[in-house]
């Protein structure tokens, strides 16, 4: 059985997904979505 870890914005961040894939036997871990905008980000994101 394959186990995949999908992006869950606001629930699992990249460090948690990395930890889960190292500790457990997940087959694949996908990163979160990347937002592309034509505006500068505020100083504090």
From TrEMBL:
Domain of life: Bacteria
InterPro entries, sorted: Aldolase_TIM, DUS-like_FMN-bd
Pfam families with a match to the protein in the record: Dus (PF01207)
All residue ranges annotated as the DUS-like FMN-binding domain in the record: 4-44
Protein name: tRNA-dihydrouridine synthase C
